[in-house]
Specification:
With about 350 residues, the protein is an alpha/beta fold. Helices cover about 35% and strands about 15% of the residues. The chain has one domain (about 35-359): Glycosidases (TIM Barrel), CATH 3.20.20. The chain is built from eleven helices and eleven strands. An eight-stranded parallel beta barrel has the order 1-4-5-6-7-8-9-10. A two-stranded antiparallel sheet has the order 2-3. Bound molecules: beta-D-mannopyranose (BMA).
Length: about 350
């Protein structure tokens, strides 16, 4: 690694939307930074890290995170979600205001951190949430579909938001966008059973084309994130093409025992490592966690046991919403001491590790 290979810009040769994707220098720099970072270890990420935690909510005056409370360090990768931006709401589906999100992203970026954004988009058929499975929305939002016009306006809003996130020099802050995740499972309107593989791929390709080339948000990298898979074929079932995916993601939660989770995680890592080599792409654990982190040594004995030396770029753990829905430790919680121990390991990268060393 360490090569300066530029991002894939080849055209797709099949019947799918074919275009030459625009990629700004900011996006290219973010990619280079991710590569350099990955040489040192993997970055620790947390969803909504600085906007709220257990027992606190950011009113805009803070730069605080549950991770920092425990380890003295902020996460290196910060996840946010733009669900409901498409409806032109002032705050997302989890009541995070988009103005706060913008200002926190700026702070993260100023400190050398990395930002990744997911999109729990509403069902375009009825405006209800992502889990609403009414109709076959995907085919209707594609170009020529009856909802394409509405959906295009959604993407214009998304691009406007991304383009509004700027540093003090007015340069757009590069972001890893992770739309339409967990498509190989049946829970979202864009998921398995709600569209064909070809429709999903077209959905993705049109999104990239519209956001980057049409609406000029070309400072984005794109992460593809299936949920649990057992084989390479399963992983690639909805893969929309090397020219429109920059990071091979995977979402995997521990629902049952640490043993079965470790086994699945290990198998998935082998698959994406191989694919990462073949495709010369970065790979990451884009969503993970064990609700309530009920295993006291989960961080060192389950997570790091699998992730150390795996070659992944980052692992992002889901949000700390409340005491019965949180995916990292908080002060006094039973896994907090172990998270602190994890943070001492040199190959686990936090905010200062990636800003100081890589600037
Ligand atoms: C899910 C849950 C929901 C939340 C959604 C988007 O996994 O945490 O409560 O609304 O993610 O953040």
């Amino acid at each position: 690694m360490g090569s300066c290979k530029s991002l894939q810009r080849t055209r797709s040769t099949d019947t799918m939307t074919s275009f030459k994707r625009n990629i700004s220098s900011e996006a290219q720099e973010l990619h280079n930074k991710l590569r350099a970072m990955t040489e040192k270890g993997y970055a620790f990420g947390h969803q909504d890290a600085t906007v709220y935690g257990i027992g606190w909510k950011n009113d805009g005056s803070l730069f605080k995170s549950d991770i920092h409370e425990i380890t003295g360090q902020h996460p290196a990768v910060h996840g946010f979600d733009i669900g409901h931006l498409e409806l032109e709401w002032m705050h997302n589906l989890d009541t995070v205001s988009f103005d706060l999100m913008r200002s926190q992203i700026k702070k993260v970026h100023e400190q050398g951190g990395i930002v990744t954004i997911s999109w729990h988009a509403s069902n375009p058929i009825n405006g209800k949430d992502s889990w609403n499975r009414r109709g076959k929305p995907v085919r209707h939002v594609l170009s020529n579909g009856r909802l394409h016009h509405t959906y295009r306006a959604w993407l214009a809003n998304v691009a406007t938001f991304f383009n509004s996130i700027r540093d003090d020099e007015n340069n757009p802050i590069p972001i890893i966008f992770r739309p339409f995740h967990e498509m190989n499972k049946p829970w979202f309107w864009w998921g398995k059973g709600k569209c064909s593989e070809a429709e999903y791929k077209e959905l993705w390709r049109e999104l990239v084309m519209l956001l980057t080339n049409e609406f000029k948000a070309d400072h984005l990298l794109f992460a593809y994130s299936p949920d649990f898979f057992e084989t390479k074929e399963e992983y690639l079932q909805y893969y929309p093409g090397d020219d429109v995916v920059d990071i091979l993601g995977m979402d995997l939660y521990q629902h049952w025992t640490s043993n079965s989770f470790s086994k699945n995680l290990g198998n998935e890592l082998e698959i994406v490592t191989q694919l990462g080599k073949e495709k010369e792409k970065l790979y990451a654990l884009t969503e993970s966690g064990h609700n309530k982190v009920r295993v006291p040594d989960w961080w060192t004995n389950v997570i790091d046991r699998q992730l150390a030396g795996s070659g992944i770029s980052w692992a992002l753990f889901w949000r700390n919403a409340r005491t019965n829905h949180h995916f990292v430790s908080y002060p006094g919680q039973e896994s907090a001491t172990d998270l602190h121990a994890l943070s001492k390991r040199a190959h686990v990268l936090f905010l200062e590790d990636i800003s100081a060393a890589l600037h």
